[in-house]
Inverse folding.
């Protein structure tokens, strides 16, 4: 099936964390961006549906 951008991002993050020493700050930043873009996409979808 088609992979969602969020799933692809999680794969990239998990691969990065496997190859590098775990950095909690980086993980929090990535989580913050993931939530931010997730909300942004939802808001855009709502606006499109309204139109």
């Amino acid at each position: 099936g088609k992979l969602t951008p969020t799933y692809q991002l999680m794969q990239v993050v998990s691969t990065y964390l496997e190859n590098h020493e775990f950095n909690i700050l980086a993980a929090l930043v990535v989580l913050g961006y993931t939530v931010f873009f997730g909300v942004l996409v939802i808001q855009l979808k709502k606006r499109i549906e309204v139109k």
User: Anything to note?
Assistant: Helices lie at 5-19, 24-50.
